[in-house]
Amino acid sequence: MHGRLKVRTTEEEREHKKKEQALKVKAYKAAMQLIMTKRQKQEYDDEMLTASTPILQRNPDVTTLWNIRRECVLEKIKNLKSLTDEQSDGNENESEENSAVTKERKIQQIFEGELNFTEHCLPVNPKSYNIWHHRIWVLENSPQANWQNELALCSSYLKKDERNFHTWDYRRYVAEKAKVPKQKELDFCTEKIKINFSNYSSWHQRSLLLPILYPYEGEAKPKKPMNEEKLKEELEMVLTAAFTDPNDSSAWFYQRWLLGYSRPEMAVCGFRANQEKAVIAFTKPLTSKGLKVTLKSSDKEQELTEWSTVNLGPSDYMLKTTLKAGSDLKIFNYIVVCTPLYTSELLPLKIFHDDIYYFQALVSSTAYTDDVLGELKAHLQMCENLLEYEPDSKWTLLTSALLMRAIDSQTYHSKALNYLKKLQSVDNLRENYYKDLASKWILENALMDWSKTDNIPKQLNLNDLKQLTTLTDPQYLCIADEILLSDNLKERCTALKTFQEI
C-alpha cells in the first residue's frame, strides 16, 4: 500500500543484518590495520587517535587500543612541549612564566579531551576495567585534576547502579585523592545500603572505613575489627539487613567480618627447642629473612639465627634452625620473636624434659563486653526463630553456627557441628566446604583440649575424631612428638611432620 513502510520478512532482516555486520567487520579491520601500521612506523598522531575512537566507543574492552591511545597522548604532549619551547625562544617578549602557563593549559586541554572521550564510552559499558583505568591514568598525569568532578561522576553512576564495584573502586581512588573525610564516605555507604541492602561493594567499603574511624584499642584476641560501641551498632544494622532478605548473602558476609572471620593476624602459634634444633610456627606464612628469635631469662639472652623454611620453599608457616650443643635451655623463661612486620610480646616458655616449648591454641571465641555479647545472643535467637519457619535456609544455618563459635565455641561445639552436617545436604554443592570447616573447628577444639593436658607436647591423639577429614592448620602440630591419626587422614596427610621428623 502507498504511504506504508515495507516490513522486511525474517529472511530479509537476517540478510540485512548480515550485510551490516560485514560492513562493520570490514571497517574494524581497516581501522585496526591502519593503527597497527602507524604504530609500527611510530606515527603517533591525530589520525591514529581518530581511528581508535569509533572502535572504543562501540567496544571499550579492546585493551591494546587504550595502550596505543596513551602512547598517542604522550607523543602529542612531547611535540607540544617542543613546539612551545621553540616559540618561546623566538618570542623574546614572552616571559618564562607566561610560556609555562600556556604550555600547561594546552596539556590540560589534551587530557580533558581524553576524559570527555571516556565519558562517551562509559554508557556503553560502565563495568569496563579499561575505561576506569584510562581515567586514572589521565588524572595521574594531568596538571590540574578536578577531583570534585570525578566524585560527581561516581555519584552519578552509583545512582544508576549502586552495586557497580568498578565505580566503587574508582570512588575509593578519587576520595583518597580529593581528601574526602572518612566519616563522609561512611555516611555515603550508609545511604547506599539503605537504598539497597544487597550491595556487596558498599558493605566492603564500610569494612575498610570503620577500623580507621573507630579503631579497637583493647587486648582481646583475635583482634576485633572496631571498638565495641560501634561494633554493637553495626551488629544491629546488619541484623536488620539480613532479616529483610534472609536469602541475600551480602549482609551475612558482612556479619562474618564483624565476628572476626577473616584472615588471622600474624602471631606465633608454636615453638619448641632441644639441644640440637628449634622449630617455630606462625599463623601466617613468612620468609626467613629478618626473623629473630631471642630466648630470655632474668639475666641472660640467646639469639637463634639462620632459620630456614621446613618446606624448603621461599615461605612457610614453619621454620627451623640448628642449635649448638651444650646449651642449657631450661634456664630461659620467655621468647621474643621479631620479623620485619611483626614483633611479639614476651611469650612464656614451658619445660618438657630437657626441651622448652610454647603453644597457643587456635581461639574461636573472643572476649566481648556484655552489651556486644547480648547483641550476639540476640542475633543467634533470631536465627533460631527463623529456622523454625525456614529450617533449610543455608545462610541462617551457617550464621547460627558462626554465632555459636563467636559466643562460646566450647559450649556450642556439638550443636555447631550438627548445623554444618545439615548444611552438607541442604547446600550439597558446597558439601566439601562444610566438611573442611567442620574439620577446622574439630581441630581447634582438640588443640584447645590438648593444651590443657599432660600429653602436650608428647602425644596428640586425633584418631577418635571421626568427622575430622583434613588438617586445616598443620603448623599447630609441629611441637608434638607423636600424632595419632585415622587411616584416612594418614593417607591424606603424608607431608605432616612431627617435631622429631622436622
From TrEMBL:
Region: Disordered; residue ranges are: 84-104
* SUPFAM superfamilies linked to this entry: Protein prenylyltransferase
Per its UniProt record, what Pfam families does this chain match?
Answer: PPTA
Q: Per the UniProt record, which EC number(s) apply here? A: 2.5.1.60
Q: Name one GO cellular component term.
A: Rab-protein geranylgeranyltransferase complex
The keyword S-adenosyl-L-methionine is annotated on this UniProt entry: no
Q: Where is the composition biased (Acidic residues)?
A: 86-97
> In Gene Ontology terms, what is a biological process of this protein?
prenylation
| UniProt-recorded Gene Ontology molecular function terms | Rab geranylgeranyltransferase activity
Record field: catalytic activity: geranylgeranyl diphosphate + L-cysteinyl-[protein] = S-geranylgeranyl-L-cysteinyl-[protein] + diphosphate
Gene3D superfamilies (alphabetical)? Protein prenylyltransferase, Rab geranylgeranyltransferase alpha-subunit, insert domain
So which domain of life are we looking at? Eukaryota
Q: What does this protein do?
A: Catalyzes the transfer of a geranyl-geranyl moiety from geranyl-geranyl pyrophosphate to cysteines occuring in specific C-terminal amino acid sequences.
Return the similarity comment: Belongs to the protein prenyltransferase subunit alpha family.
> Can you name this protein?
Geranylgeranyl transferase type-2 subunit alpha
What species does this protein belong to? Glossina pallidipes
